Amino acid sequence: MVARVTQYTLDVEDVDLMVTFWSGALGYTVEQGDDGSAKLWPADGATGPTVWLQGSGTAKRGKNRLHLDLVSDGDPGAEVQRLIGLGARHADVGQTGEEQFVVLADPEDNEFCILNAQPTRP
After folding, report:
1. Is the whole-model pTM more than 0.85?
2. Using an 8 Å Cβ cutoff, are 50 and 6 in contact?
3. What's the pLDDT at 80?
4. What is the rounded distance in angstroms from the CA atom of residue 27 to the CA atom of residue 79?
5. How far from chain centre, in Å, is Cα 122?
6. Domains of the chain, each with CATH number or no CATH
């Protein structure tokens, strides 16, 4: 028996702002909760974990200890620009410039990466 990732939960200050960003970024559909939270679901036929945006009422502090690594189904550079257009920004977490990914932050400063390629086993 093993555990599998099924959902990514993110505490957010502004649920509506983050629903707009993350549903647009991932192409997920939105289910608003009665408690002010929102669950994002992969598009029909797509795979991937759900995302639960849980209102916390407080701003993020410090660097994330867990973050998403995303891969584009097209050009990674174009995907970075698309995400910036949705409200992301470049983030510096100490990268050297030699990485095979770009670090971005969402509108509430949660870091995530756009990988240049799908991870492969050695």
Report:
1. yes
2. yes
3. 97
4. 13
5. 26
6. 1-59 (3.10.180.10), 60-122 (3.10.180.10)
